[in-house]
Specification:
The protein has about 110 residues and is an alpha+beta fold. About 30% of the residues lie in helices and about 35% in strands. It is globular and about 40 Å long.
């Protein structure tokens, strides 16, 4: 989210690759980093479980956050930021955990 409408997205893959992209609307992934496969699989499984159990949640504010999970052509997203509709604490905690896992990653341009 943000003032300009630009989003920064981290896509964690089960093989340990992390793609980083930015954009307005469609996100272009231009950077790639890596974490341990076991940690990546743990993140993917936790996000899948959380998104499945939370169902649908779409309450963005001016500044918003989201976690999504894609399997095949099916994408499920939890989006929050509206103070009138706070997200469950466990979703926020998972978001913070995922962000902490990708924050120390060194990203290189995708060729």
């Amino acid at each position: 989210g943000g003032f300009t409408g630009t989003t920064t997205v981290f896509k964690v893959l089960p093989n340990g690759k992390i793609l980083k992209g930015t954009g307005v609307g469609d996100v272009k992934f231009s950077l790639c980093g890596k974490i341990k496969k076991a940690k990546a699989r743990e993140i993917v499984n936790k996000v899948a479980d959380q998104v499945d159990s939370a169902g649908s949640f779409n309450h963005p504010g001016n500044l918003f956050y989201f976690i999504s999970y894609t399997q095949g052509n099916n994408e499920q997203t939890l989006k929050w930021g509206d103070i009138e509709h706070p997200i469950q604490d466990d979703v926020k905690k998972l978001y913070d955990e995922v962000l902490a896992s990708v924050n120390g990653v060194r990203f290189k341009p995708i060729k």
